[in-house]
Write a structure and sequence with these properties.
- The chain is α+β, with helices and mostly antiparallel strands.
- It has one domain (7-284).
- Helices cover 39% and strands 22% of the residues.
- The protein is built from 10 helices and 8 strands.
- It has helices at 28-42, 48-56, 59-63, 67-70, 78-86, 97-112, 157-169, 175-185, 188-215, 281-284; strands at residues 7-13, 20-27, 113-119, 129-136, 232-234, 239-244, 247-256, 265-278.
- Strands 1, 2, 5, 6, 7 and 8 form a 6-stranded antiparallel beta sheet that branches. It has a two-stranded antiparallel ribbon with strand order 3-4.
- Helix 1 packs antiparallel against helix 2 (48-56).
- The radius of gyration is 21 Å and the shape is globular.
- The chain starts with 6 loop residues before the first strand and ends in a 9-residue tail after the last helix.
Length: 293
Amino acid sequence: MSRLFTIGKVIQIRSDPLRVTRLAFIETEEHIRHVVEMLTWLYPDASEKLRQAARLHDIGKKVYLQYDFARKDKRLSPQRLLNNFYQPGSEQNRFTPDEAIQRYLAFLKRGHAKCSIVRQNPEDENSQIVAARYQLDPPFGQHAATLDPSDLRGLLDNELGYVHSLIQLHHNFQVDKLVATAAEYGEGIITDLHRLITADQEASRWAEFLVQKLEGGEEEPEGKFRFSEFAIEPVADPKEISRDGAHVQAQVTLKASRCPALDEWTLPVDYYVSDCDFLTPDLATKKRGGKKR
């Protein structure tokens, strides 16, 4: 765990269709590790440039925190967070998981959580509310498209542009940008982009699968990543290794059924969980029943 803990992924856990009862948090560096290891498993022939891109693909989540989350905290300055990413043990101050979680919950209450309701009859505004969906703003801002090349350390001159382009594009599918990038670096970068996106999506999906299973959530992670050539599935249910207060360590073993040459692989996941009875006030005042006639 880093001395300056930053949230890389937030997972909603619900046991009621109207409530998010708990939130699970995965550290930025932990998510990056998942992606690097997923890439290594799925694509053992990955180029060094692609591996570098995986190691750095979400550095923006660490560095570019939203102003309303960082709140002028000097520990969370971009330069200090950047240094902490590359030299985890050099930072003397600490920003603990508990601090990050509590600050994030306060951040949500300042207008960074939006609720949309689902009614039994979508065309009748008085029909019963059967579900609520919550859009929770992340604590970080634009973490890929706005990444500066100077944030990417330890790369050779002939690697920097390529790796920077992969990172910028892994959340951006604009055709004109893809064509321009392929024209500059060759068609191989499109293959590498596909591999990076696949590793990112699969790592996120199976980490969430593990969390939902162990925490009793009713949410099902999104189905197979539609652009993936793999059919990944769990060999068995996730296994909890340890639980110390909010801190959980667990693992899930996976197989790629379309690629029998790949051995089964175990994904370890380290996360934190916090109770959160997240029912927004405006929803609480709405009637769950239909309008009497």
